[in-house]
Amino acid sequence: MLSKSQARLFFLGGTILFSLIFLWLTLDTIRQTPARTHMAAMDEQVLLGRKLWDENNCMGCHTILGEGAYYAPELTNVLDRKHPEWIRAFIRNPQAFYPGRRKMVAYDFTDEEIDGLIAWFRWVQGIDTNGFPKDPPLREWIKDSGQASVKE
Amino acid sequence: MKYKSQKVAYLFFATCMALFVLQLVYGFIMGFARMGLDGLHDWIPFNVARATHTNLLVVWLLAGFMGAAYYILPEEAERELYSVKLAVIQWGSLVLVSLVALVGFHFNWWEGRKFLEIPRPLDYLVVVNVLAFIFNIGVTVWRGRRFTTTGLVLFGGLLSAALLYLPGMWTFQNHVFDSYFRWWVVHLWVEGVWELIMGSILAYLLIKLTGIDREVIEKWLYVIVGLTFLSGILGTGHHYYYMGAPEYWLWVGGLFSALEPLAFLAMALWAVFLANKGGRKHPNRIALSWAVGTGIMSFVGAGFLGFAHTLPQVNIYTHGTLIVGMHGHMAFWGAYAMLVLALIAYAMPQMTGRNLFTGRIPVIAFWTANIGMVAMTAAFAVAGVAQVYLERMLGIDFLVVQENLEVHFLGLVLAACLFTTGILLYIWNFTRYGLPRDEALEAVR
């Protein structure tokens, strides 16, 4: 039967071993991250966008890289869905786009600041995310079946 | 209660009750907003309500842990607390800093970092506050007449939690680094060192409430916290799947976070087994219900529901959806909220010398709150699964999907009403105890 000192050894030994492995993987992650996140492309505009993103707690409604509050859309690949001009107009007056529907705070950003946000979205989109967000696997099926029913 | 200085814990427990009520208010604001009833949007937009709701939770749980330490450690060390005065000052400053932060959120004064939104200048005040706390309990333990495993694990958990706050204060220009180290705080707290705090508080309660030999209980405490770190440290990897970190985190995080439920399962079995074996020895049965309940509900909420979406093949669809809300609510309730409520349910009769733990009210409070939380979790689960299929599998527009999920938030709000009723009954019973008093010393054993 396990004794108390053996149980203590299990706790201390496991903790030290797995902490060391974690630190080692952290060092490797730090080494690989600049290339995976194309850090060289982080210019003044991207940093301005990131600053606005943080200062206004955009993550408190949106998600980015899947992290946030899922009250508003995931923005990792927003530039695939929306043209930069659409984003520009939307940020200036969000409620005009979806009247009577879910609201976004209207921020009084300058043109330069909105450019920064778009540059930040573009930078985020270039991160190697191991495949997130994934293309919806049934989207094509829906389109196909929609066409089929129209033909019928 | 054996030592006069243990009474200072009351300040922290009362703070828990007040902040918990406020947390529920902000929860309702969000629940209604998700139903489309966002009349408060101009004053309290969703991101304000969300940051306030989650930070209130963090603060009241930390206040509960601090109160627990002030209550438990003198008994474990067999001496008075080093300084009651310092504890009172530390309590006052904790409340002040927290309130300033929460009010600040309403004026766009924050950092947009999930769960750690508190603005940087206040971070430094938190560090000073926690240093005072660690110093106070550290000296108490160091100068104690005995060193128990329960006391040392509790102190070790609190010290580690304090140290792990620091990586969250590193700033990086690269968002991915920022996120990487933010999870050192958030994950290594709730799925790491907080489980040390949980295990030791539960050990203390089981020792007191079951009368079973301390050596037996503490031996299994080591096994449980050993399992926690064995799985939880590398389990941090489940936050690194899709945020820009290397691909090996998919299998490292997947493998080790799949083992995380083991620690919670062990905790649940430990509590249930010990309660069955010796649970009839102490009159405060409701405190034992909360203690066993925290073991069971933490396994379901943190262990089982966490496992449900932790594998990368599943998580790529559920990441950043309402499924996270499903898991998060029951996990925090089971593992940490119920734990603090268990300790308060045990400590209040001890500190006041009054027996208000029998009768119907405490039992109704326990069951109403728990059934309410199960129903809330179910509402989140239905909405979350629907969201995953409609948005992530079929590719339907985010907002269209959200509008079609509104009905589930009516269910959520109704369940939350039941939950709130239970909590209010618990708090009402708490207030009936009144203030702690010296006459309670050794009065209730």
What's the arrangement of secondary structure elements?
The complex is a heterodimer of chains A (152) and B (445).
Chain A: H1 4-36, H2 44-55, E1 63-64, E2 67-68, H3 78-81, H4 84-92, H5 94-97, H6 111-125, H7 139-151
Antiparallel strand pairs in A: 1-2
Chain B: H1 9-34, H2 46-77, H3 84-105, H4 120-142, H5 149-164, H6 175-210, H7 214-235, H8 248-278, H9 285-308, H10 312-318, H11 322-352, H12 360-393, H13 398-404, H14 406-432
Helix pairs in contact in B: 1-2, 1-14, 2-3, 2-4, 2-5, 2-11, 3-4, 4-5, 5-6, 6-7, 6-8, 6-9, 6-11, 7-8, 8-9, 9-11, 11-12, 12-14
Helical content of chain B stands at over 70%
The chain-level structural class of chain A is mainly alpha
Strand content of chain A: under 5%
The value of Rg of chain A in angstroms is 23 Å
Count of individual domains of chain A: 2
- Biggest β-sheet strands, sense, barrel of chain B: none
- What's the main sheet of chain A like? 2 strands, antiparallel
**Radius of gyration over C-alpha positions of chain B, nearest whole angstrom:** 21 Å
CATH T-level topology of the largest domain in chain A: Cytochrome Bc1 Complex, Chain D, domain 2
CATH architecture of the largest domain in chain A: Orthogonal Bundle
Largest interface: A-B, 67 and 70 residues
Proportion in β-strands of chain B: under 5%
Number of helices of chain B: 14
N-end to C-end Cα span of chain A: 72 Å
Number of strands of chain B: 0
CATH secondary-structure class of chain B: Mainly Alpha
Give the tags.
A: mainly alpha, Cytochrome Bc1 Complex, Chain D, domain 2, 2 domains, B: Cytochrome C Oxidase, Chain A, 14 helices, globular
